[in-house]
Amino acid sequence: MLRRPPDARPQARRPARPEAATRSRARPSSAAAAPRRRAIGAALQLDAFLPADRLVTDPGELASYAHDEAHGAPHAAPLAVVRPRETADVAAIVAHCAERGTPVVARGAGTGLAGGANAVPRCVVISFDAMDEIVEIDAAERLAVVQPGVVNEQLREACAQRGLWYPPDPASAPRSTIGGNVATNAGGVCCVKYGVTRDYVLGMEAVVRRGEVVRFGRRTAKGVAGYDLAGLMVGSEGTLGLITEVTLRLRSVQAVERTVIGYFDDLAGAGRAVARVVESRVVPSALELVDRYCLRAVDEWRQMGVSDRGNVLLLARCDAPGLAGDEEADTILACFDAAGATESARSGDPDEADDLFTARRLVYPALERLGAVLTEDICVPRMRVPDMLERIDRTAAEHGIYIATLAHAGDGNIHPMVVVPPGDERAGERGRAAFAQIVDEAIAAGGTVTGEHGIGLLKMRGLTKEVSAAVLSLHRGIKATFDPAGIFNPGKVFSWDG
Ligand SMILES: Cc1cc2nc3c(=O)[nH]c(=O)nc-3n(C[C@H](O)[C@H](O)[C@H](O)COP(=O)(O)OP(=O)(O)OC[C@H]3O[C@@H](n4cnc5c(N)ncnc54)[C@H](O)[C@@H]3O)c2cc1C
Under 8 Å CB-to-CB from 194, ≥6 apart: which residues? Predict the structure, then answer.
């Protein structure tokens, strides 16, 4: 029987919004910080157009904006952090930085796992946490207009109150922002059926080039005027400009979901079950995989009883209405059984089903309690999932480490993770070597080096392996058009000249 944790909401070691916890210290009341703020403000002359409480220069606070949650990605202390309230502020800061050649790094909530929001030397970090207004929810047109600092879950809740649904649901939804989600093209649990962030971006306002405010895309259900520049901004990881407002497509509220669970002895068995579901042509609204290391870490932390029943858990949901939904659930159950599930069931208890998905969301913070977590993010064709999972097991054995595996299995998006206990850097080295091999194998299997986390700083080598020199050269041309001063998140995603 599943045991519910004391607080079933995902918790992380860090505060929900790291910046929020320290924000009050940024205010002018900090007498010690004032002279330094004046000095840096004067050097950058940002204080000429920004009130003091929009500017952070205290070294202690700057450190909390220096990096995201990716372990092992390089970062520097920013020269200053600005927290604009409106687009005009962002445009003025960009124009100012472009004139001086000062790098600008955009930051949402800093939950990224690729180093995308990491500060680069002598940069200004633009933190969007104060641009957090839901400007409009139009139920008839089924769209929302939001500022970039709106937290994903807040938007989803506001939509739900109006009978609407914003589907993209990264596991970081309680903390990550829409701006960060758009800039990384975030995925999540329901993407197997409902697509990723890109599928919900209709248009946006952005600050590009040397401070120009532009609007890309549209508010209409259809529209093909010009190149898809809004689409180009999606997943651009802050390298093409700064997103200051987003127009998002919404759906009607989701139908009630049925949950199917299956426990398997090993990753290979669970992988075969995933392939069977794909072959069955049922498209579940979620198909997630959680291995024994992840289940154990959750139980060690929250005692939920999820690791008692088997080694690898597959969690599926289907949301077709009425009898069709029942048939889908039965088909998935049959797939699990045919692949050798040691236990399988349709969950009749919605609380139990929710708790299992909560356990899945708790995996990352549960592993973080044990050490720094190195995370991979490969995505392979769905029919290659069983093969890839076996390769991950083999690679772990070859390198003498254990690899915890979590997957949006229905998308073929696999997250192998290595926990590096404090002081055990050798585990880190072995983990990185194992990941290099896994990434090469994913590419060889027709996959990609990143399914949802982005390239940032950690996957730049992988990108050069995945795309041709000609395609990288097109990237550079686009970058030069959007960012002639070379100030937006320099040194990320791909190198400028190499
Ligand atoms: C526990 C946990 C679970 C996660 N689960 C998922 C998951 O299921 N799916 C998934 O896709 N990711 C997941 N992630 C990764 C991360 O949450 C996503 O990449 C998320 O989209 C980042 O949002 P953020 O607001 O934290 O952005 P940040 O980390 O602050 O920034 C991410 C990137 O976007 C850029 N950026 C931010 N705001 C703007 C803006 N306004 N304009 C231009 N560029 C901008 C930054 O420069 C950076 O390159 C997870 C992370 C954690 C820690």
Answer: 167, 168, 251, 285
The pLDDT assigned to 497 comes to 64
The amino acid occupying position 417 is: M
Give this prediction's pTM. Answer: 0.92
Query: Ligand 1 centre from 366 Cα, in Å?
Result: 19
On the 0-12 / 13-18 / 19+ scale of CB atoms within 10 A, 165 is: middle
Predicted confidence (pLDDT) per residue in 416-429, tens digit: 999 999 888 888 99
**Using CB atoms within 10 A of its CB, is residue 129 exposed (0-12), middle (13-18) or buried (19+)?**
buried
| Angular region, 72: left φ>0, alpha ψ -120 to 50, beta rest | left
DSSP assignment of 338-372 equals: HTT-SEEEEE--HHHHHHHHHHHHHHHHHHHTTSE
**Using a 6 Å CB cutoff, which residues line ligand 1?**
68-69, 105-113, 116-117, 128, 148, 170-172, 176-177, 179-181, 183-184, 186-188, 237-238, 242-243, 364, 452-453, 489
pLDDT in tens, 395-443: 999 999 999 999 999 999 999 999 999 888 888 999 999 999 999 999 9
Say how many Å lie between the CA of residue 6 and the centre of ligand 1. 28
pLDDT above 80 for 147: yes
Other Cβ atoms closer than 10 A to 343: 12
Residue with the smallest CA separation from ligand 1 atom 13 is 170
